[in-house]
């Protein structure tokens, strides 16, 4: 910073810039005669990139020299990183998000500092130059890439950057996003079996894939019980003297699907309780058909 005129204490004011390679003894000095000067450029074509120098700045006027500033360390201009990140890994988090991680370049950077990393992500049917770019800052070695297309193959590559530019790219890795919730018809059929001596009425729910959650509750209660299954049927043993509401909802890694229409189970009278266990009463046979958005890749937790 320049010295204000009221503090120059005389004519012929100027600056003395002293500098030396870091770790050496002898100072080099140059005079900057203008009192308004705020910079000095030392040019040396043989100077290695990102070389540290110790620098201090003093003042003078016609009466003599003043004191020097404290010593500070500055660096010559850096070059872009010369090595690519290693051990690049990618995994799908959902239908629209993937996570990518990497390790810093093996070779230590003698020509500059790594200020962060640039992740490029492009779909298999896109050109690499149109890739989505995400930049991290500092030592962060993982990031999430969002707003991707579901069930699509993506390529990802990582490179380091600094003030001079970006370094070479890592080898691209592939990842396929999870399937989004797709339209699927879910057919649920309620079949009454028989009335047991315990007062519990077994019902058999038959439905087509994908894997569903079966949600049921008493008509007079707000709490809901949930059964998960990867089969195409499930048997519920419920007290026969209560009204029930049953819904079926598919689920997967891509998210939960929409619930089927509500299946209402009325109280089952003793008249319907007569008969063998293999018989089916038409009065107790219900069905529901609705469109479900579901992924078929794998199940997800509640």
UniProtKB/TrEMBL annotation:
Which residue spans adopt a coiled-coil conformation according to this UniProt entry? none
Q: What GO molecular function annotations does the UniProt record carry, in alphabetical order?
A: cell-cell adhesion mediator activity
Q: Which PROSITE patterns match?
A: FN3
Highest rank taxon of the organism: Eukaryota
- Pfam families, sorted: fn3
Record key words, sorted: Cell adhesion, Cell membrane, Disulfide bond, Glycoprotein, Lipoprotein, Membrane, Repeat, Signal
Q: Name one GO biological process term.
A: axon guidance
Q: Which InterPro entries match?
A: FN3_dom, FN3_sf, Ig-like_fold
Looking up CDD domains in the UniProt record yields: FN3
Instruction: Kindly list the GO CC terms recorded for this protein.
Output: axon; plasma membrane
Q: Does the keyword Ribonucleoprotein apply?
A: no
Matching entries from PANTHER family are given as: CONTACTIN 3B-RELATED (PTHR44170:SF18), PROTEIN SIDEKICK (PTHR44170)
Name of the protein in question: CNTN4 protein
The protein's organism comes out as: Edolisoma coerulescens
């Amino acid at each position: 910073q320049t010295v204000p005129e009221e503090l120059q204490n005389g004519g012929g004011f100027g600056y003395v810039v002293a500098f030396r390679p870091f770790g050496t003894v002898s100072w080099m000095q140059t005079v900057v005669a203008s009192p308004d000067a705020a910079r000095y450029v030392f040019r040396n074509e043989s100077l290695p990139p990102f070389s540290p120098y110790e620098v201090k700045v003093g003042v003078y006027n016609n009466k003599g020299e003043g004191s020097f500033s404290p010593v500070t360390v500055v660096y010559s201009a850096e070059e872009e990183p010369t090595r690519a990140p290693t051990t690049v890994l990618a995994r799908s988090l959902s239908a629209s998000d993937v996570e990518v991680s990497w390790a810093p370049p093996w070779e230590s950077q003698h020509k500059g500092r790594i200020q962060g990393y640039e992740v490029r992500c492009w779909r298999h049917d896109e050109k690499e130059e149109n890739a989505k770019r995400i930049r991290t800052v500092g030592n962060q070695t993982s990031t999430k890439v969002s707003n991707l297309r579901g069930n699509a193959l993506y390529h990802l590559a990582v490179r380091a950057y600094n003030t001079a530019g970006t370094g070479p790219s890592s080898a691209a890795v592939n990842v396929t996003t999870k399937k989004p919730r797709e339209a699927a018809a879910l057919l649920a059929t309620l079949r009454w079996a028989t009335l047991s001596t315990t007062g519990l009425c077994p019902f058999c729910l038959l439905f087509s894939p994908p894997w569903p959650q079966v949600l049921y509750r008493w008509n007079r209660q707000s709490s809901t019980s949930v059964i998960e299954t990867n089969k195409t049927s499930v048997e519920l043993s419920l007290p026969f003297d209560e009204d029930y509401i049953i819904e079926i909802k598919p689920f997967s890694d891509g998210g939960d699907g929409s619930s089927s229409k509500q299946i209402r189970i009325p109280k089952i009278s003793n008249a319907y309780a007569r008969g063998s266990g293999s018989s089916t009463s038409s009065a107790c046979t219900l069905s529901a058909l609705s469109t479900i958005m579901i992924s078929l890749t794998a199940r997800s937790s509640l």
